[in-house]
Specification:
This protein has three helices and twelve strands, in the order E-H-E-E-E-H-E-E-E-E-E-E-E-E-H. It has about 200 residues and is an alpha/beta fold. The structure holds flavin-adenine dinucleotide. The site of flavin-adenine dinucleotide (FAD) has 35 residues, from helix 1 and helix 3.
């Protein structure tokens, strides 16, 4: 069973995975099983071109960010399982967490973070009761969110990125994924604030 399974590997999901992975040296995170359903085919990053994101050279392609993010996770934090080429069909509650069914496999996890974007094409069984019209996007676009408070949808179930109700900007989606990651780390740390900083020597 995973301790946490992130669903979707776009701006929010990949940022969340990188921060959770980066906590590996902390005692409270050491033996945690972390998984990322690394489906990227329908990410809005696939067609995005970035000139307005701090840290990205102007002209950065979203498609390159998707590949680089996955490579970075593999290289630095290989203990995070990247489950590729699988699309989630259902997230159903079980006694001690959730059963997540993809088009190929079934996984169980104590905690689930849904970061699949805000398109109304999202039809994952089990999420229906939480789906509402997106609070910030124009009604004509028919975007959706999972109703949440501070990213928490229900016990053990989190949402991140545009599906959490945020506007569609890379930094916002990525920051939302980072926020959820530190919320999970804080929980693992018995409620004491937790975040991960690397620093230069000297
Ligand atoms: C054309 C375009 C240009 C843009 N330009 C800019 C810009 O200049 N500046 C800026 O700041 N922002 C820009 N954006 C917005 C930015 O790309 C989005 O805000 C950001 O990608 C949203 O992140 P997200 O994680 O919420 O969703 P996404 O990045 O879309 O990620 C969702 C992920 O979930 C996966 N997924 C979906 N369904 C499932 C499923 N059932 N099972 C498993 N995985 C699933 C998808 O494959 C994807 O990887 C642009 C977007 C587009 C479309």
């Amino acid at each position: 069973m995973y301790d946490v399974l992130i669903i979707g590997a776009g701006a929010a999901g990949m940022s969340c995975a990188l921060i959770l992975g980066s906590a590996k040296s902390k005692a409270f995170a050491k033996d945690r099983r972390i998984g990322l359903i690394a489906h990227q085919r329908t990410s809005h990053l696939q067609t995005a071109l970035f000139n307005n994101v701090l840290g990205f050279t102007s002209g950065t392609l979203g498609a390159d960010i998707l590949k680089q993010g996955s490579d970075q996770l593999t290289e630095l934090y290989p203990h995070v399982d990247q489950i590729k080429n699988e699309k989630v069909k259902a997230i159903l509650r079980i006694v001690d967490g959730f059963k997540v069914t993809t088009n190929k496999n079934t996984y169980t996890s104590k905690t689930v973070i849904v970061a699949v974007g805000y398109t109304n094409l999202m039809t994952i069984e089990g999420l229906g009761p939480y789906v509402e019209p997106h609070p910030r996007a124009p009604a004509a676009k028919e975007r959706i969110w999972l109703k949440n408070e501070d990213h928490l949808v229900d016990d053990g179930l989190y949402v991140a990125g545009t599906l959490a109700g945020w506007r569609s900007q890379f930094a916002i989606a990525s920051g939302s994924g980072a926020q959820v990651a530190t919320d999970i780390l804080t929980l693992w740390n018995d409620g004491q604030d937790a975040h991960v900083h690397d620093k230069t020597q000297g």
